[in-house]
Amino acid sequence: MSTHESAEMSGHGGEVERAEPTGPPVPETVAEPIADPGLEDHVDRLADIDPKAERRADRQVAGMFALAALLIVGFLVAFFVFQIEVDGNVAEAVRNSNLALGLTLGLALFLIGTGAIHWAKKLMSSHEVDHERHELRSTDDVREAALADYELGVEESGFGRRKMIRNSLIGAMVLLPLPAVVLFRDLGPLPGDKKAHTIWDTDVRVVRDGSFEPVRPADLEIGSLVNAMPETFEDLPESGPARINERAKSPVILVRMEPDEINAAEGRENWHVDGILAYSKICTHVGCPINLYEQNTHHMLCPCHQSTFDLADNGRVVFGPAPRSLPQLPLAVDDDGYLVAQSDFTESVGPSYWGRRR
Amino acid sequence: MSAVVNGAGKVVDFVDQRITASNWLKRNIRKAFPDHWSFLLGEIALFSFIVLLLSGTFLAFWFKPSMTEVMYEGAYTNLRGIHMSEAFSSTLDLSFEVRGGLLMRQVHHWAALLFVAAMSVHMLRIFFTGAFRKPRELNWLIGATMLFLGIVNGFTGYSLPDDLLSGTGMRIIEGGMLAIPFIGAALSSFLFGGEYPGDDAISRLYILHVLLVPGLLLALVTLHLMILWYQKHTHWAGPGRTDRNVIGYPFFPIYVAKSGGFFFVVFGVITLISATIQINPVWLWGPYDPSRVSAGTQPDWYVGFLDGALRVMPAWEINIFGQPLSLGVLIAALVLPGLVLTPLILYPWLEQWVTGDWREHHVLDRPRNQPVRTGIGVAFITFYVLLWIAGGNDFVATIFDIPINWVIWFMRIAVIVLPPVMYFVTKRICLGLQRRDREKVLHGRESGVIMVSPDGEYSELHAPLSQEAAYELAAHRRQTPVQLDPETDENGIPAPRRRVEKVRARLSSFYFGDVVQKPTVHELEAAHHDGHGDGHGDGHGPAPAALGRGEPEPPGEQSGIGTAPQP
Question: Do the Cβ atoms of B483 and A22 come closer than 8 Å?
Answer without folding.
Answer: yes
